[in-house]
Amino acid sequence: MSDAKRMVAVIGRLGIHPVARLSLAGSRMLAYLAVHGCPVARGRASAALWPDLPDDSGRANLRRTLWQLPRGWVLAIGDQLQLDAETDYSHAYHVAAKALQGQALTYDEISLLSNDVLPGWYEEWALQAGEGFHQLRLQALEAACRNMTALGQHGLATQAGSAAVAAEPLRESAAEALIEAHLAQRNRYEAVQCFRLLAQRLHSELGVLPDPALSLRFSAIGLPTGTTP
Fold first, then answer.
1. Where are the alpha helices (H) located in 102-187, listed in sequence order?
2. 3-class DSSP state of 63
3. Ranges of the chain whose pLDDT falls below 70
4. Which among 20, 14, 137, 116 has a CA at the least distance from the CA of 68?
5. Can you tell me the distance from the alpha carbon of 134 to that of 143, in angstroms, rounded to the nearest whole number?
6. CA 173 – CA 78 distance, rounded (Å)
7. Could you tell me the CA-to-CA distances from 141 to 99, 105, 107, 225 in Å, in that order?
8. Rounded distance, CA 174 to CA 165, Å?
9. Is 74 helix (H, G, I), strand (E, B) or coil?
């Protein structure tokens, strides 16, 4: 298998292809480099991966981890380290950009944006990458839902909208996009259920009602909302 076939996945879970035996430190190293994309200085990498250790100890751990990694996965260029593999993280940013530019997405592209980066990882660098990606994928899924509703691709529109709502149940704009997708397909029952669930969550979590404009949208087409707490 050629070097170009190497792949590190960080969305949903960590995975590498071709499969190789990795230490815990090696897994963290590949994940760290995958979410950075560009070359990283050795000192910065060791400080991020071993934040509780003195600098000398962190650098020693870094050298040991690099030596234990399968050959070819990480390039050392002077003081810089770079992952020599494709990543689903960089591909997901490209997919998100497509959606935000008004382009339609495929089923697989929507599925890629339907998960967060390294869920369950609580290291500072992982949390920072995860939060940035979470916000981006919300915007992209919502945009994809609206784009494909306009294009008449209702199945994909509802998939994108459902993924956005699942990622952030209190996000009113995501729920609105999904509701519009249901209504465009003449699925009034699903639209009303989506609205009522949003209303229940907003009332339970924040003590507020849905945006009045969304309530008026239902009133204008004669659909019951059932938003009274």
1. 107-112, 124-150, 154-167, 172-184
2. helix
3. 1-4, 220-229
4. 20
5. 14
6. 47
7. 7, 9, 12, 25
8. 6
9. strand
Residues in the chain: 229
- Taking the C-alpha atoms of residue 202 and residue 200, their distance in angstroms, rounded to an integer, is 6
**The pair of three-digit structure tokens given for residue 12, joined into one six-digit string:** 């949903």
Opening angle at CA 23, ends 85 and 9, nearest 5: 35
> Can you tell me whether residue 196 is helix, strand or coil?
helix
| The pair of three-digit structure tokens given for residue 46, joined into one six-digit string | 């060791």
**Strand order in 86-87's β-sheet?**
15-17, 7-9, 86-87
Cα pseudo-dihedral 116, 118, 123, 127, rounded to 10: -10
What span, in angstroms and rounded, lies between the C-alpha atoms of 64 and 26?
9
Model confidence pLDDT, tens digit, residues 14-36:
999 999 889 999 999 999 999 99
| Residue-level pLDDT at 225 | 58
The confidence score (pLDDT) of residue 5 equals 83
Residue-level pLDDT at 226 = 57
Direct distance between the N- and C-terminal alpha carbons of the chain, in angstroms, rounded to an integer: 60
52-61 pLDDT, tens digit each: 999 999 999 9
CA 169 from centroid of its chain's CA atoms: 15
Of the candidates 84, 47, 78, 82, the residue with the CA atom closest to the CA atom of residue 62: 47
**128, two tokens:** 């920072």
